[in-house]
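Usage

Read records sequentially. Each one opens with the input sequence:
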Amino acid sequence: MRQPAVTSFSPGSETRICFLIGHPVGHSLSPLIHQAAYAALRMDWHYGLMDVLKDDLPAVLERIDGERVVGANVTIPYKREDRKSTRLNSSHQIISY
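and closes with the structure output:
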């Protein structure tokens, strides 16, 4: 399996991580928006990008463990084709508690 492209950052030991999952995602402004909100709320969270190929999607979804990786948003092309996933709700979010 090819490693998905992930936004570079240096997390602390308590940092919670969320991602935008799709292909392609490099153009997305989501990290800027989410990081601004996290900073304003003084949250030790990071929002990154994961450019994921279709065959790698199941393995990436398994990494959302609810401990360190706490959630993701799903975008094109997966928000159209992965609606059958029990981990994907109607707003295209994956949340792990």
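Summary fields computed downstream for this record:
- The chain has a mean pLDDT of 79.
- The helical segments are 30-40, 57-62, 78-81.
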